[in-house]
Amino acid sequence: MSTNTKKDQAQEHVERARETAGSAVDKARETAGTVVDKAKDVASHVGQAASTAASYVGEKAGNVATAIGHKAEGATASVGRGMENLGEKIREKGPESGFLGRATETVAGALEHGGEYLEEKKLSGMGRDLTDLIRNNPIPALLVGIGLGFLLARTMRS
Length: 158
Hints:
By secondary structure, this protein is an all-alpha fold. It has one domain (3-157). Helix content is 95%, strand content 0%. It is built from three helices and no strands. It has helices at 3-93, 98-136, 138-157. Helix 1 (3-93) runs antiparallel to helix 2 (98-136) and helix 2 (98-136) crosses helix 3 (138-157).
């Protein structure tokens, strides 16, 4: 074989190698594009599943909070009924006249009135009443808050 033929064959091999390398690069790009598309699809599905799960958990938490709120309202009304009953029993069993009679009447009336308030207003009504009280009397409310904070700090320090 002549040197020209060997050179031609070598060039032919180089050309084939280049074509093969080019083809391999094209295949790699195509495969990478497919992988990226699949990854995007998987990420989208995972995101949707996470969103659905979060929505479900949020809904369940809201339901639980609502149920707890209803139970707390019912418990407050029940405490109110108990206070009313206690006031009635104190009135029935206590002395009717004199100093102790007036004290019995005052305590029984306060328990009955407080019980009616709790039974009627429940927690939500008490919160509104407290908010209105603070709104209508901001300075005394602030002073009471400062006083309670002072007492709490002293208690914690001890």
